[in-house]
TrEMBL record:
Co-factor requirement: Ca(2+)
GO terms for MF: peptidase activity
SUPFAM superfamilies hit by this protein: Protease propeptides/inhibitors, Subtilisin-like
Name this protein carries in UniProt: Protease pro-enzyme activation domain-containing protein
Length: 607
């Protein structure tokens, strides 16, 4: 990296983690004397945060290294500083370089993706080391967020799903199995498969998860953490509501705030995103999915800024918890993003999640769109939301729902090639031991993990799930920008991923909180107490006796896929994934998916 290029980094400070976790456990556990006695942001900082002297020592050291803009955030979680690359290399005893990943695919501009990274672990003075959790902002190696776009942009008019047009065969359906395609030759024993859904409407998703017009999330506030601002979000949300025949949102129901400092330097991570031809509807999908489930709830979209995606998203989450000092910005936070293992110290994520639990804030975190774990979903104080494949029929009936784990076959020259499994994240952490709330619910066979040559029981992921498969995604609306950057036409695209599942669950929890004296906060102890009850749909494996059209999707060739393909549902094959879909708890879908009024009533009784 050029020595003069400027960066902004954050030095994360260590709270009194053990005492903070004990407090978080007490306020989240039914039956505890401290149950639901949440702390304000200021009270949490005073009780568990680093002292003013500790903060001052870190700030003084950074200023002494010639860095500028040195300041502490409102919750005393981190100290930020700005300066040239050379100053940070000297301060942290690292070299910061530009790298290309091995075997990386080239972007639309013909260039391989580039990221920045320090070449070794950072070092700080020994006197400060006990007070520092880690440093963010030196590396841009991760792709931390982004929904899975399942199709190209649809018609700008009315947001109608694409289907059969004159002279052309249908490529998707408006409901599950509207169109079925014969497979020649057969793939994995299947001779026919349905076409994917063009994108479910709000009405279809509401019916699948039992949302009602009695409980709409009225009086609740959901925060959406993002790393980029959408175009004209309130205008887009209004158009989405109109096209889905939902009540139109009031101006007071949506606001957008910024967290962190704007990026002023070129960013390889941002350059890489700009090369992608896909439509980025992450923020729009988050807002619309919450609105589909909870049209009466307020939303606050917190956009983290900066040159580093991970840092921007952590900024956004921290800003929600700091709030105005007296209360956090929201009691429910939908975090539709994931940070890969190794990109950020797990202690940083853990400190954020523990603070959230102590303040009565539920942190709903996407389990990721690839098998395995992430830093963000494996924390025991996060509500990890996994993914499912959901079939909604012509009468808005639930045809089936299973774990999102698709085996993709590509047809070329009359022969199928198996290209492996894709799906939602999950598994067992080798960092965190099995939390108390999972004992007796998660089978030991699904919780075992090898740590230091010993087999122990670890924290299993996910906790709960909802629709995430791109073959059964949501029709998402977005607003184009014209050549001058002004809002243009309303368009739609089918999108999915656990980035969809997370706000769907968050919206249903907002429905359950309606009319309650206190928010549920960290909800996992409640969820696991309800495991095996009618509160959840138990997402089961796809049986070989199920109709073939419910076991796979045929994907017609298009501009994205030049060859025909097929996704076979609920396939777990090693070494692609160690996850399974099973009766009861499983590492694809957790305790299951929300079951409408039964889910809401059970939370109210237990909480």
């Amino acid at each position: 990296m050029p020595a003069s290029q400027r960066l902004t980094v954050q030095v994360w400070l260590r709270p009194d983690a053990a005492r903070a976790a004990a407090s978080a456990d007490a306020v989240a556990t039914p039956g505890s004397p401290e149950f639901h006695r949440y702390l304000s942001p200021d009270a949490y900082t005073a009780r568990f945060g680093p002292t003013a002297a500790q903060v001052g020592a870190v700030m003084g050291w950074l200023i002494g290294r010639g860095l500028t803009g040195v300041q502490v955030d409102g919750g005393r979680d981190f100290v930020s500083a700005t300066g040239p690359v050379s100053a940070f290399e000297s301060a942290f005893q690292v070299r910061i370089g530009q790298y290309q990943p091995r075997d990386a695919e080239r972007g639309s501009a013909g260039r391989s993706p580039v990221f920045t990274s320090n070449d070794r672990q950072v070092s700080v003075p020994a006197s400060l080391a006990p007070d520092v959790l880690g440093v963010t902002g030196l590396s841009s190696a991760s792709v931390a967020s982004g929904s899975t776009v399942a199709s190209v942009a649809q018609s700008p008019a009315a947001g109608k799903p694409a289907g059969k047009s004159a002279g052309k065969p249908a490529t998707c359906g408006q409901y599950w199995a509207q169109h079925v395609h014969a497979l020649h030759p057969a793939y994995r024993g299947l001779t026919r498969a349905s076409l994917p859904v063009c994108g479910y409407s709000a009405a279809q998703l509401r019916a699948a998860y039992g949302a009602t017009w009695r409980d709409t999330g009225r009086g609740q506030r959901v925060a959406l953490t993002e790393d980029e601002s959408p175009t004209a979000m309130f205008q887009t949300l209004t158009a989405y509501a109109r096209s889905n025949r939902l009540p139109l949102p009031k101006r007071s129901q949506f606001r957008q705030v910024q967290a962190g400092s704007a990026c002023t330097a070129p960013s390889p991570a941002r350059d890489r995103a700009a090369q992608s031809p896909a439509v980025d509807v992450e923020a729009e999908m988050d807002s619309e999915a919450v609105y589909a489930m909870a049209p009466g709830a307020d939303q606050v979209m917190v956009v983290g800024t900066g040159c580093d995606e991970d840092q921007a998203l952590l900024d956004a989450a921290s800003a929600v918890l700091a709030g105005d000092g007296h209360r956090p910005l929201a009691s429910i936070v939908s975090n539709s993003w994931q940070i890969p293992l190794g990109d950020v110290a797990p202690q940083i994520v853990h400190a954020i999640d523990v603070r959230a639990a102590a303040e009565g804030v539920g942190m709903y975190v996407a389990s990721g769109d690839t098998p395995g774990l992430t830093v963000t979903d494996s924390d025991p104080y996060a509500v990890a939301v996994g993914g499912t494949t959901l079939g909604v029929g012509a009468a808005r009936n639930r045809v089936f729902e299973t774990g999102w784990s698709d085996d993709y076959g590509s047809l070329d020259g009359g022969r199928w090639t198996d290209l492996g499994v894709s799906g939602g994240g999950g598994g067992v952490s080798d960092v965190y031991r099995q939390p108390t709330y999972q004992k007796g619910v998660v089978p030991a066979s699904m919780a075992r993990v090898r740590v230091a040559k010993q087999t122990v029981l670890g924290r299993a992921v996910p906790d709960i799930a909802a629709d995430a498969d791109p073959d059964t995604g949501m029709l998402t609306g977005y607003t184009d920008s014209d050549s001058h950057g002004k809002p243009g036409r309303y368009r739609t695209v089918a999108s999915a991923g656990t980035s969809l599942a997370t706000p769907l669950v968050a919206g249903l929890v907002a429905d359950a909180q309606q009319g309650q004296t206190l928010p549920y906060g960290f909800i996992n102890p409640l969820l696991y107490r309800l495991a095996g009850t009618r509160a959840f749909h138990d997402t089961l494996p796809i049986s070989t006796s199920a109709p073939q059209q419910n076991r796979a999707v045929y994907i017609a060739p298009d501009d994205t896929f030049t060859s025909a393909g097929v996704d076979v549902f609920d396939v777990q094959q090693r070494p692609d994934t160690e996850q399974v879909t099973a009766k009861g708890y499983d590492t694809m879908t957790g305790v299951g998916t929300p079951n409408g009024t039964a889910f809401i009533a059970a939370l109210r009784r237990s909480g």
